[in-house]
Write a structure and sequence with these properties.
The complex is a heterodimer of chains A (145) and B (203). Chain A contains four helices and two strands, in the order αββααα. With 145 residues, chain A is mainly alpha-helical. Chain A has a domain of 77 residues: Flavocytochrome C3, Chain A, domain 2, CATH 1.10.1130. In chain A, strands 1-2 form a two-stranded antiparallel ribbon. With 203 residues, chain B is mainly α. Chain B has eleven helices and no strands. The longest helix of chain B is centred in the N-terminal third of the chain and has 25 residues. The chains are: A mainly alpha (145), B mainly alpha (203).
Chain lengths: 145, 203
């Protein structure tokens, strides 16, 4: 009987406990007058093979470091390996045909402006652990039988 | 009219230069010559070294505001081991003969400094491709000699390199390529590469 009451009491109180839990900013629990713990500097993961995609439309991840890579109007470091002209010699994956059309679907002779800045979609990976647990699974068509 | 006035000052000094000394001992003349030689040679080399310092290079605003600023974001300025390569480490040969040749060629740079060929960022940008191509050409011709003062490929341990680096280095060296063939724009912003590689430029 006492046990049952305890459980009922806990069930009643639990939303209240959850509500009173304050929200912390990224700097954590340190007060404004103390220094917060310095977050660890995340490092780029270097040089792996191609990373499997989690869903079909996913822009492929970059499996190497891109430190110091310049992409601006005058020059695109990524394309010095991944462009169609350079891919054969460098052995890199060439950019897909989707990169050669504008948003109306008209074909262009070179990379489209909306596809030119590679790391708007393609990103290198850091050694960061996920902040919250994730049970996401790639769809079955992407999983080897 | 005596002989001195007849032949002019120049021939007088020439005769004085050629005739044996009657006043000073051979020892004194040699000693003075020796000391003067040291001072001249030491001074010459010191001046040459002075013109190799970063302070000297960025005493011109053309260098300080363009290439020096760009270089500060690169690995040759800041890196994990704290070894820095300053301007002259890459742009001036280490050995004496080639260094002297480079120093003499630099008079052309002084000439353009006076002309103000690149004295605004806009003018610099307009000339960037041409200037970069000069440097690339020189490095290609010398088999990237200045790179190799530090990065000698015979000292490279491929097992310590990343997978892609190993592949590219072996492939490149086998094809007779040199550092600058791939490693362009590692210390400064690149010019517009439309003419070099149109597939890697926004058009």
């Amino acid at each position: 009987m006492i046990n049952k009451m305890k459980i009922i009491l806990m069930l009643c109180l639990s939303p209240a406990i959850a509500l009173t839990e304050p929200v912390y900013s990224l700097r954590g629990k340190a007060s404004l007058y103390n220094e917060s713990k310095t977050p660890e500097i995340k490092r780029l993961q270097n040089d792996s093979g191609p990373v499997p995609r989690a869903y079909v439309q996913q822009p492929p991840l970059i499996p190497h470091s891109t430190k110091g890579y310049v992409v601006n109007k005058k020059f695109n470091k990524c394309l010095t390996c991944h462009s169609w002209a350079n891919a054969a010699e460098s052995g890199a994956t060439k950019i897909s045909l989707t990169h050669f059309s504008d948003r109306e679907g008209r074909d262009l002779s070179n990379v489209s402006a909306r596809r030119y800045f590679c790391n708007q979609c393609h990103v290198p990976q850091m050694d960061a652990k996920p902040l919250v647990e994730n049970t996401f699974q790639p769809i079955d068509v992407l999983q080897a039988p | 009219m005596n002989e001195y006035q007849q032949n002019g000052k120049l021939s007088h000094y020439w005769r004085l230069f050629r005739s044996p000394s009657a006043q000073y001992s051979l020892g004194a003349l040699l000693s003075i010559g020796f000391v003067a030689g040291i001072i001249f040679w030491g001074g010459f080399n010191t001046a040459m070294e002075l013109s190799n310092t970063e302070t000297f290079c960025i005493s011109c605003h053309e260098m300080e505001e363009n290439v020096y600023k760009e270089y500060q974001d690169t690995i040759h300025y800041n890196n994990r081991s704290g070894v820095r390569a300053v301007c002259s480490d890459c742009h001036v040969p280490k050995d004496w003969t080639h260094k002297l040749v480079r120093k003499i060629r630099a008079t052309n740079e002084l000439f353009h400094k006076v002309l103000g060929t690149i004295d605004t960022p806009e003018k610099f940008e307009a000339k960037r491709l041409q200037m970069a191509q000069h440097v690339w050409k020189t490095m290609k011709e010398t088999d990237s000699r200045e790179c190799r003062n530090c990065h000698d490929y015979q000292s490279m341990d491929y097992t310590e390199q990343k997978k892609r680096s190993v592949q590219q280095h072996i492939q490149g060296f086998d094809a007779g390529q040199t550092c600058i063939d791939c490693h362009k724009g590692i210390a400064h912003s690149l010019p517009s590469m439309v003419e070099i590689d149109p597939s890697a430029v926004f058009q």
